[in-house]
Amino acid sequence: MRFVEEFRDPALAKGLLARIDAAARAIGATKESPVRIMEICGGHTHAIFRYGLDRLVHEGIEFIHGPGCPVCVLPMARVDEAVEIAEQPGVIFTSFGDAMRVPGTRKSLLQAKADGADIRTVYSPLDALDLARENPEREVVFFGLGFETTTPSTALTIQQAAREGVGNFSVFCNHITVPPPIKALLDDPHMLLDGFVGPGHVSMVIGIHAYDFIARDYGKPIVVSGFEPTDLLQSVLMVLEQIRDGRAEVENQYGRVVPEHGNPVSLAAIADVYEERPSFAWRGLGEIDRSGLRVRAKYAAFDAEEKFGIGYGARRARDVEEPDGTACAQVMTGRIKPTGCPLFGTTCNPETPMGALMVSSEGACAAYYQYGGRREPEVVE
Questions:
Q1: Domains of the chain and CATH, by start
Q2: How far apart are CA 321 and CA 210, in angstroms?
Q3: Residue 55, class by beta-carbon neighbours within 10 Å (0-12 exposed, 13-18 middle, 19+ buried)?
Q4: Which of 15, 21, 25, 27 is nearest to 247 (CA)?
């Protein structure tokens, strides 16, 4: 299959691994003093473990798993508010499947559904809009969740609802943006990072220049990467070559998909429908300035926070402590690996998850568990 098989070519992978080995040796990377590369996207984390790339590369390269899973970084307070909306009479609450099992303080959306709330899994916000058309006597709410990758589809759906005057449709907006948390991590003196593998799907929307500050202000290389094994190996090699050559640049390995300046149609829809929140709470990172989006006043009729008087629209989201014994925050910020959490694989597993990182299809803990990454605890700091 074109654009798949050639990026899984064993011979090409072996050649890239040999070049990675040579570059790592030239830098002087060792197991005791590794080059620490953070893959920001949870999809990259799963690809790394699915193909065993972390075990194939030079031992002096360490992958640090970043906060690139939007379900994982959603604070428990926002899950509680989603459940609160869903349990109101006359509401049909819709969500992508990976958010259904994320635990709140009282229950998850799946548990609320079992308790009688009308909560339905959809594959697109347009599915939720269809439900609103079909059920004019009900309020249909879509759980808007994700980075810049999914934000355009929600924005375009709100525009469509406005054009049609579908007044019983709204979005509980939890869309967030990638660059601000990267800056927060770089400002953390405890985070020792040498370079980044940048997110492919997000960059398809926003382009590559949103990351210029990483190279310009912090002197760290970043390479936007695809998701096939040779994509990731080439991206790691490009990061190492920048370090070897004393460069810090934004490079685009995923040029077959990611345009330099992003997608203008998507960016225009986002700008029309959304504006930046002053701040937004991230699980593991706390409040980050200008890192979340909210529905603009011109589309307030489609803002569930305004319609139901909940969340940031009515009050500050309360702080909610993570369950006792979990280490979600430390894993989310790359301070420890999932195996460093005392609950990993025992109390917390895919059947009985204690945290979102074990639930989401992009969660680091799910990747470790699914692909056999259960090793001795490794502390990054």
A1: 76-177+261-313 (3.40.50.11740)
A2: 32
A3: exposed
A4: 27
Burial 327-351 (b: 16+ CB within 10 A, else e): bbbbbbbbbbbbbbbebbeeebeee
pLDDT tens digits in sequence order for the chain, 381 residues long? 466 677 888 999 999 999 999 999 999 999 999 999 999 999 999 999 999 999 999 999 999 998 888 888 888 899 999 999 999 999 999 999 989 988 888 999 999 999 999 999 999 999 999 999 999 999 999 999 999 999 999 999 999 999 999 999 999 999 999 999 999 999 988 888 999 999 999 999 999 999 999 999 999 999 999 999 999 999 999 999 999 999 999 999 999 999 999 999 999 999 999 999 999 998 878 899 999 999 999 999 999 999 999 876 444 444 556 667 778 888 877 888 888 888 888 888 888 888 778 887 788 898 888 886 544 434 444
Cα–Cα nearest to 62, from 153, 194, 179, 176? 194
Q: What angle do CA 127, 128, 129 make, to 5 degrees?
A: 90
Query: Which residues have C-beta within 8 Å of that of residue 213, sequence separation ≥ 6?
Result: 179, 183
Residues 6+ apart with CB under 8 A from 325: 342, 343, 347, 354
Tokens describing residue 180: 């601000």
> What residue has token string 């059920």?
135
Q: Which token pair is 76? A: 């428990």
Q: How far apart (Å, rounded) are the C-alpha atoms in residues 102 and 86?
A: 15
User: How many angstroms separate the CA atoms of 170 and 140, rounded?
Assistant: 6
CB count in 10 Å sphere of residue 319: 11
CA–CA gap between residue 240 and residue 232 (Å, rounded): 12
Q: How far is CA 239 from the centre of its chain?
A: 21
CB-based contact 39:66 (threshold 8 Å): yes
Contact status, residue 234 vs residue 253, Cβ threshold 8 Å: yes
- Which ranges in 9-124 belong to alpha helices (H)? 10-27, 42-50, 53-56, 76-86, 109-114
